[in-house]
C-alpha cells in the first residue's frame, strides 16, 4: 500500500480514524483536506481561518472542536461555519419578509450608527428564529464532500494546526474522530425523534405563525416609514419620487425611478455620441484647412529665406 501524501496542491491531508460502530464493527480512515481560507472577497479574519473539505457527514461544531483540541490543545478553536448552513440561512432570511420591504431596507434603511445596525440585525435574527417553524431533526447530516470554514483564536493557532497535521504523517498517529456526549445520537434514536418532531402541537405551530405574522407586519411598517420619507426626499439629481394615488403609502417604485433615470442618462450619452459623429466630418475638414494653412505659411517662409540668401550672394563689398 502506497503511503498517504501529506499534501495535495494547497491542501494538507488530515487522516482521521473512524472508530468501529455496531452497524460497521471495523475502524476506517477518513481524509479531511485542509488549507488556508482564501475567499473571493477577502476579510480581516482570513489569516486565522482554515478551509476544510470532505468533512464527515455527521460533523458538528463539537466534533471539530474536539478534533482540533486533540491536535493543538484546547482554547485554539473558536467557531465553524458549514457551507450548507450558510445557504439555509440566506434562504430563510430572503423568505422572511416582503420583497419590496427587503429592497427598501437594504437600499435606504442603513442610515444609523454601526451600533444601532448591529442591535437591529440581532433583533431581526431573534424575530426570524422565533417565526421559524419547529425543526424536525435533532441533528443535521451533511452531504458527502461538504465544506466548512474553521476560525481559530489567532494566526499562530492556524500555523500550529498545519504543523500538527504534518506531524501526524510522520508519527502515523492519526487522531480519532470524537464522539461528544452532548451531541444527539444517530441511528434508530435519531429517526424516532424525527418521527415525534414531525408532528408538533397546534400551540407550537400557532405560536410560530403568530410570530411570523407580527414580523411580517413589522417589516411592512418599516418599509412604509422609509417610503413615506422618500416621498418628500429629493434624490441626488434633485427629483422627488412620484407616487401612484394619494392614498398609497409607498412610492410608485423607487427601483423603477432609478431604472428610468439610468435609461435617461444612457439616452443622453447616446445623443452626445451621435452629435460627435455628426460633426466629425466638419472637424476633419477644419483640421485639413488648418494643415493647408500651416503648409502654406511654411512654404512662404522658405521662399523668403531663399530670396534673402540670393540677395546676400550678389553683394559686392567696396574696394
UniProtKB/TrEMBL annotation:
Coiled-coil intervals, chain numbering: 255-304
GO cellular component: a single term: UTP-C complex
Domain Rrp7 RRM-like N-terminal intervals: 10-193
DNA-binding found in the keyword field: no
Gene Ontology annotations of biological process type: ribosomal small subunit assembly; rRNA processing
Listed InterPro entries: RRM_Rrp7, RRP7, RRP7_C
Keywords: Coiled coil
Domain Ribosomal RNA-processing protein 7 C-terminal: 198-317
Presence of keyword Transmembrane helix: no
Pfam families referenced in this protein's UniProt entry, alphabetically: RRM_Rrp7, RRP7
Family membership noted in the UniProt record: Belongs to the RRP7 family.
Name of the protein this chain belongs to: Ribosomal RNA-processing protein 7-domain-containing protein
Organism: Rhypophila decipiens
Lineage, opening ranks: Eukaryota, Fungi, Dikarya, Ascomycota, Pezizomycotina
